[in-house]
Amino acid sequence: MQRMKFFIISSALIATCIFVFLAGCNINGNDEGTASINITGTAPILAKSRALTPDPSTANEIWAVSYNMGSWDLKDKQIATIDTSGHFSVGVPADSDRSVLLLVDTNQQRKIDQIVGYIAIGVDAEHNMLNFPASNATGDIDLGTISKDTDSDQADEVKSNESDVDMVTANFDLTFDELKQMASNDKLLRSIKNWYANLDGDNWYGLNPVYMYTYNNLLSAKNNFLTPDTVFDPINSANLEKKYSILYMTTIAADDPTKPEFGNSELSLYFPDGSYTVDAQDQNNTTGISIPAGARLSTNSSLNEPSSLKAYDFWDQSGLGFFHGIVPGGQWVLKKDGVEIARYDLSTGDPFDSNGNIKVFVPAIKLNTTGDGDIVDSIDIQWYLYDESTGQYQSVDSTSKAFLNVVDYFDIALTDYSSNPPISENFEIGSSGGTVGGNLQLTDTHIIPIEKTWTFSDQPGAVETQLTSLSVQYEIYGTRFMFDIRN
User: Do 173 and 322 share a domain, yes or no?
Assistant: First the structure.
């Protein structure tokens, strides 16, 4: 039995996510004619007789797919057939900093069932790297003999032998630490499964995940780095709220993100098969709601099942809502007027380890004031990554190839929510990594507010604005993360 908790998504976050996604969206491909890096290997598991249910051994093709500016280049994917020995050879664009090799069973009827596994580089016992960053390669990549991972959490991965990592990665201009850092983040690349399943020509129906963390102790970042070890320490659990959002995206109305492309159609998102208990936050703060078979969230609240979720707004042009905890496995089905239009596995790309530790880059924030005063002079940011071998968050360099290859988007917002309407000052990257239209670079670690004078004081002066929230949003392989520190 799984437990989930629902909330309503903020319209400001929706608007930001839609704008960023649509501005960078390129569903069907990049420029042609680029050079390629060749990847070879032999997977005996792919040479044996096919099983009856989808798993890596049922694959009959390998696809090389590259990712660019928030979208997968599915139109120009490279397909390599597998010979009788399990040997394969396939190219990826030499200028791409992220590509994946998919194990595909084209005999499966549903597209979402066709991606049955992933080819990975075995880095060490804890890390398989799904990304093949050809832009960091000086030559072709030979994986040698690859085999199915015995780790139950990575059972759909076929990897090279980690004892051969030096040989396999010899042509990568990456340090061993950078390989581990990229491998830790790139489970999010599995979201390609949902992109592929719901791409119909030039149209795409997407449910993108957003992981949100609110830490209710802004003063703890005053002249001191609020590190992930502090934020996630069980002793501080009363200060931490964790929420998961399903954000709806579509290219159908890309020319106008506010356009209700489905008009008055009834839309319903059906839960995966199985039994759930939902900690629902409705108008009565009802909790412990059972989710029966066929349960759904609908634009027509009278159709919501269970009906106790009637106050939960599934559809507000682009957002679905929140629930707490790890996403349940199984396939969610989106229907328009009773007809299926999309199907998703929202548990794919889960960024947590088996103990619930988040395994992607996370920020530490420091709000600098002058002496013992309350005026915020500047903001410092330090990035961290959880290290399974030490059980601690380790600092990482935001100028490293691993960080720059992985992070797509980054913004910081200072907000006074005590004002009506709220007052904000924003720093965000523009296109091309911040070089066009932005006032922030991915590598920035020191930011100085210039539009307003921000203060911790709840009695601001005439020229001061009370700081009640400092939020950091960033995107890794199309998955959004938000850390919001509030007083």
Answer: no
Q: Does 372 lie in the same domain as 329? A: no
End of a domain among 303, 318, 344?
Answer: 344
How big is the CA angle at 37 (ends 31 and 41), to the nearest 5 degrees?
Answer: 135
| Distance of alpha carbon 54 from alpha carbon 110, whole angstroms | 11
Tell me the per-residue pLDDT of 382-424, one tens digit each, with 9 for 90 and over: 999 999 888 899 999 999 999 998 998 889 999 999 999 999 9
Give the pLDDT band of residue 289 (cuts 50, 70, 90): low
Range of the domain at 395: 362-486
Residue the block writes with tokens 């020509």: 201
> Does residue 210 sit in the same domain as residue 131?
no
